């Protein structure tokens, strides 16, 4: 049970983030594109891309650790 001050957070999977990134990128080619919103969208898209890169690096490190454990045996 969560306390009153806690926020319920759900961490998105890499796949979900990739879909979000694809949708954000498609916005730049859509009819909804405006120069006024482009900078804001670009910044949020870059932040999302950085999160994905971080997640992939963490996954790569985890795989490396598992791989080392298997090579010990």
Report what the structure shows.
This protein is mainly α and 73 residues long. The N and C termini lie far apart (41 Å). It contains 2 helices and no strands. The model has no long low-confidence stretch (mean pLDDT 86). It has a domain at 35-73.
Largest sheet: none
**Total count of helical runs of at least 4 residues:** 2
Question: Which regions are unreliable across 5 or more consecutive residues at pLDDT < 50?
Answer: none
In what range is the share of β-strand residues?
under 5%
Distance between the termini: 41 Å
- Structure classification: mainly alpha
Mean pLDDT: 86
Shape: rod-shaped
Percent in helix: over 70%
Order of helix and strand elements from N to C terminus: HH
Radius of gyration: 18 Å
Number of strands: 0
Architecture blueprint of SSEs:
Elements: H1 14-27, H2 35-72
Helix pairs in contact: 1-2
In short:
By secondary structure, the protein is mostly helical. The chain has helices at 14-27, 35-72.
Please name the defining characteristics of this protein.
2 helices, mainly alpha, single chain, 73 residues
């Amino acid at each position: 049970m969560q306390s009153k001050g806690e926020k319920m957070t759900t961490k998105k999977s890499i796949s979900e983030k990739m879909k979000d990134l694809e949708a954000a990128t498609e916005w730049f080619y859509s009819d909804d594109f405006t120069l006024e919103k482009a900078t804001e969208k670009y910044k949020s898209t870059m932040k999302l891309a950085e999160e994905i890169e971080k997640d992939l690096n963490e996954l790569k490190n985890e795989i490396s650790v598992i791989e080392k454990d298997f090579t010990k045996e």
